[in-house]
Amino acid sequence: MRLEDTAALTDVGRERKHNEDAHLLLPDIGLLAVADGMGGLEHGEVASATAISTVRAAQGVLGDLVAKADEAPERENRANLGSALEQVTDIASSRIQQVLNGANSGTTLVLGLIAGGHLLVANTGDSRAYLYRQRRFRCLTDDHTVAAARMRAGLLTQEEHDVSPYQHMLYQALGTAGEVNPDLFDEPLAKDDIVVLCSDGLTGPVSAQACQRILGEHLEQDATLEEIAAALVTEANANGGPDNITVVMARVAEGPEADAIEEDRMALQRSGMTESLESIDLRLLRHYLDYQTLDAGSPTDVGRGLHFVLRGALERDGTRVEGGAFCCVKALMGGDDLPFTAVEDSSVFTLSAESYDLLERRRPKTAARLLRGVLASIA
Fold first, then answer.
1. By C-alpha distance, which of 15, 20, 27 is closest to 96?
2. 42 burial via Cβ count (<10 Å: 0-12, 13-18, 19+)
3. 153: domain range?
4. Which end of the chain, N or C, is surrounded by fewer C-beta atoms within 10 Å?
5. pLDDT tens-digit map of 260-273
């Protein structure tokens, strides 16, 4: 999707002598990227620049996939885009190792690609992606730091995390010896959404609440994205500017109203099927789901997999499935099942057997928790 309203700004900060951040903005194909060379290591600026140049070199392939997703935004085309982002990340990591020839260095990389009405994010490290919608600034990614992992495991509170000596120690980064396994998120977009990618030079000294306030106040004054990015960088420097600061932003010009998308997101979150899932599981799961609408009287295509009803109702032989419930579990397991009929206009998320198998391979813990929730709901 071509982006008409974008901004990108990078700043060395107050304490660093040179800028190890790198970024990329390709409005023609809807791509945003931020890489943060690992502070304190050799050649961090080379690592981040190599990651970004690798992404730029892939713009032809990515552009073709974006065009397909824009034309037919079903999950298969978005899945191909997601796989491409993962491959680009892996290639970039290998290239960094080759360029630096064993030097002790590495970089984060967060990629955002807007296509088919969705934002796909591939994230490695602790640079972040945010979504500003309805005056709320919501983080879409999870940091790959030791402290963040311990907090997600319940071993640290937020307060303990914020003073932990491990809050900037990455357990995953490009160009290092370890395997790169980026998180892949898939968010449907609404009209006027603002996507923000940034390095931790912003999110360290400036809280999410402060970022939310700055965006809200400036948007009320009809500020441009360039002015908002500048205000965010100024705030980070006012709070000490301890690191390089990079912000890349894009506004979504067209799409459905935000209320409908938020209603779907909350419906999935409240489902008994997803009770066993953690926050990151819910965000990872979204990439594997198809969205479809059914007119009243239309039968479900059970071959497509498990159906989770968001709005409306389905019925079969007196069994009624309404919003928040699911059906066609046999289809999820690859077995035969009988169709339900929409008794009113309905919308559903569908998880096919193939998508579940892919989820199980890529994110086995998320797949296990989801299956546990399905079984618990049946019981």
1. 20
2. middle
3. 5-253
4. C
5. 899 988 888 888 78
Enter the tokens of residue 79. 């899945």
End-to-end CA distance of the chain: give it in Å, rounded: 44
Residues 197 and 329 in one domain: no
Nearest to 252 by CA among 188, 185, 187, 191: 191
User: Are residues 239 and 369 both part of a single domain?
Assistant: no
Residues 6+ apart with CB under 8 A from 79: 287, 355, 358
In angstroms, the CA 116 to CA 41 distance is 39
Query: Do 217 and 201 have their domain in common?
Result: yes
**Strands of the chain, DSSP E:** 5-11, 21-26, 31-36, 109-115, 118-124, 128-133, 136-139, 183-188, 194-198, 245-251, 290-294, 306-311, 313-316, 319-322, 326-327, 341-342, 346-351
- For residues 185 and 333, state if they share a domain: no
Task: Output phi, psi for 347, to 5 deg.
Answer: -130, 140
DSSP 169-219: -BS--BTSSSPP--EEEEEE--TT-EEEEE-HHHHTTS-HHHHHHHHHHHH
DSSP codes joined into one string, 67-93 = HHHHHS-SHHHHHHHHHHHHHHHHHHH
The DSSP symbol for 260 reads: H
Whole-angstrom CA distances from 371 to 110, 239, 271, 329, 355 are: 29, 45, 13, 10, 13
Q: Please name which of 95, 83, 177 lies closest in space to residue 122, comparing C-alpha atoms.
A: 83
Query: Are residues 345 and 238 located together in one domain of the fold?
Result: no
Q: What is the 3-state secondary structure (H, E, C) of 43-62?
A: CHHHHHHHHHHHHHHCHHHH
Instruction: Determine the 3-state secondary structure of 282 from DSSP.
Output: helix
pLDDT, tens digit, 9 for 90 and up, residues 250-306? 999 999 999 989 998 888 888 878 888 988 999 999 999 998 889 999 988 867 888
Whether the pTM exceeds 0.85: the reply is yes
Q: Does 236 lie in the same domain as 134?
A: yes
